Amino acid sequence: MLGPAVLNQCGKTMIESATYPPEINSIETLLPAIGHWYALHARGPGVGTVACELQDAHSATAAWSTGRFPCSFCRGILEGACTRYGVRPLIEHGTSGCRDDGAKTCIYHVSW
Amino acid sequence: MSISALERSHSTIVEAMVDRMCGRAASAFGKVGPDRCREYAEAGVDALERDLASDQLDAVRAVAYTLIDGLDGEGLGFSDLRFYALTLRAEVRAALDSDPAAADLRVGVEQWFFELLLVCTMRFIAWRDEVMQRESAERSVKRLESQLDELRAAVAEKTHLLEVIRQASTPIAPVVSGILVVPLVGLFDSVRAENLTEKLLQEVSRVHAKTVILDISGVPVFDTGAAQLIIRLARTVRMLGTHVILVGMSPANARTIVALGVDLAGIKTLGTLQDGLAQALVWQQLRIGPIPK
Known about the structure:
The complex is a heterodimer. In chain A, 38% of the residues lie in helices and 22% in strands.
């Protein structure tokens, strides 16, 4: 069993080291694209959805409705999407429940 | 400073705030519902009006404290506070932009929101520190309780082992019918004396023993306390009509007893277990002899 810190680091490293098209060059362009890439790469039935919406110039809300990854791994992905561009974000879990505890969706508020 | 432009838009700002606060997904505002959201929106606009009217920055602090303390336990995050401040600012600016007479209010409004963010940040950090300290203290208490449980289990196991050793170190051997031999090994203390007395009395009654031989050759220190305990044990046994013989007294122990002035009168003392057994057999009018061919 991997602990939350390791899973977080896995997600972070994954998105930090991935190759993106040249037009993806900032947090503001990377975060909203995560859902599309997830839909393109996830295989099989019941892959769920990932949606990330910018709230303003320095904050976004991400909703992960997939049973495939634990919460800490997804937090790591969001963190990596910011640290890739040299920014350490504040990621806060929403109040509507966590998939690790049986909820359908995890919502994260990302500020940077 | 005239705040009439702001007062005219008061209800519009509040309603717009409530809509946006309630519409924020998975937030403390969505959790508490529209009534509480309206309270916080009203409080924010009221404080802004009061501070602008008095040209002070007092009410802004109360708003920040009310917001953070009121939403404590509802999953309040810093992003919620940021959302509140930015939303209120956006609605106020939208209202003022549509009113040409409110141009002189804008500087004061910006100062007020700057102060609001400062106070919110400071208060939020203090609140989160408090939560972390509380959680840390709870974890420490749990860890200590766990250690205490482990210690209790270890003490219980040790006590059990000591009891087993104590039981094993005070055997009562019925060597011949009516004769019991009690070899004492190790330190002879009051607890052990108490246990042995109870056990020996039961055994004497059960086998109708005539003589008990106490072998103290295995007792390393035979001081006043130990001697008194032995004497008390012997007297108790004698009340059942049973003779007591003390054997295995080392020269050092004998000197100690004399030096301490312990009175062993009434207790037969012999050098070895063999002597004691021989004496007991005489009292029983028995003897150990060769089996005739």
